[in-house]
Design a protein that fits this description.
The chain is globular, with a radius of gyration of 21 Å. The chain has 14 helices and 13 strands. The chain is α/β, with parallel strands linked by helices. α4 runs parallel beside α11 and α7 runs parallel beside α8. The chain has a seven-stranded mixed sheet with strand order 2-8-7-6-5-3-4, sandwiched between helices.
Length: 355
């Protein structure tokens, strides 16, 4: 009897490869857009005190009401927008696809962009259509409009700023796509802490605009919390794809604790933005390096022999991200997250020696 996975696992799943995360060992970790600073030590006791009262034998609040209220106030969510929470924004991306998936249904996104959009399309049996960005990583407005017209996507994902390019697409292009899209337009603002741009205030002005955010890049990646803001009718449907109790009690309490001290995270984000400018200029000054301006907490750059550069950095204890394997516009491209001033100096020093 054949009881093997090959017999039973859906062919479309067998064709996928699992999301790979390298073991950093004790390398300087500049590969995953994490905030490089831990919580100030003197807050640890207060945080543990906030957790002490939790009853871990009980299920968490399924609607995370206090946390939702806290996010609304803290993040300036428009009063008429609904809010849906996810175990990271990754889970919300999956919930969105689950809500609209069906034969022939299309997810559309520019390319390169966040890899998870394609992954969830594959997992949910949707058709993924990628539209190449222009050479300078701006949106190719005409090509996007044509693809929208042709494919009538159920979801258009626009990471704003974009990962892995760091680009902030022109607002006029974003608006043109919003006007044209027949389905949901999900503006993924994972990097909101590092730019002044946001469409969150405009949620409610369009019946099909959703804004996705996460606390991961602003400094709480370990807690796994994302949120989706949008019109009530859409979020009520998407909520039906959510597994019960998806936000655990420790996360609910810890995020509330952190948001009550929001100024610490804001100060860190401001420092990262300053460091980003320093890193960009230093990178651009290195021989043979092309770096692209970024509105996020990382910088994309191109250098000949990028894969060897990546491996040589790794051998010297610095982990960044090699993107050249994806080919196309990303050939010979590397992405480095903005770290502490010390980590960035070490990275630049080693890279400079290699070139
Ligand atoms: C990192 C990232 C996410 C995922 O964030 P989590 O909340 O940690 O799941 C979503 N979108 C983009 C564009 C990202 O770069």
């Amino acid at each position: 009897m054949d009881r093997s996975p090959a017999r039973w696992v859906r062919p479309s799943i067998q064709a996928l490869s699992a999301y790979q995360v390298p073991d950093p060992g004790d390398a300087i970790k500049l590969d995953a857009m994490e905030n490089p600073w831990a919580w100030p030590g003197e807050l640890a006791d207060a945080w543990l005190e906030a957790l002490r009262g939790l009853e871990l034998n009980r299920y968490p609040d399924p609607a995370a009401r206090e946390l939702v209220q806290c996010l609304r106030e803290c993040m300036g969510v428009p009063a008429d927008a609904s809010l849906l929470l996810g175990n990271g924004s990754d889970e919300l991306i999956q919930m969105l696809a689950l809500a609209v998936a069906g034969p022939g249904r299309v997810i559309l996104a520019p390319d390169p962009s966040f890899v998870l959009y394609r992954m969830v399309a594959d997992m949910t049996g949707m058709d993924f259509q990628a539209v190449p960005l222009a050479a300078d990583f701006r949106l190719d407005r005409a090509a996007m409009l044509e693809a929208i017209e042709r494919h009538q996507p159920a979801i258009l994902f626009l990471a704003w700023p974009n990962n892995p390019t760091g680009t902030l697409f022109d607002l006029a292009d974003m608006e043109a796509l919003l006007e044209a899209a027949p389905g949901l337009v999900v503006v993924d603002e994972a990097y909101a802490p590092f730019t002044d741009a946001s469409l969150l205030p405009r949620v409610g002005q369009y019946p099909h605009l959703l804004v996705l955010r996460t606390l991961s890049k602003m400094g709480l990646a370990g807690l796994r919390l994302g949120y989706l803001a949008g019109p009530r009718d859409w979020l009520a449907e998407i909520d039906k794809t959510r597994l019960p109790y998806n936000i655990n009690a420790l996360t609910q309490a810890s995020v509330r604790f952190a948001l009550q001290r929001r100024e610490i995270l804001d100060r860190q984000a401001a420092q990262i933005r300053e460091e980003r400018e320093r890193l960009f200029h230093a990178l651009s000054a290195l021989p043979g390096v092309t770096a692209w301006p970024s509105e996020a907490n990382f910088i994309l750059f191109r250098v000949a022999g990028a894969q060897q550069v990546f491996e040589a950095l790794r051998e010297r204890g610095i982990l960044i991200k090699y993107l050249g394997g994806l080919g196309g516009l990303l050939s010979d491209c590397l992405r480095v997250s903005v770290g502490t001033p010390e980590d960035n100096a070490r990275f630049l020093g080693v890279l400079g020696d290699l070139l």
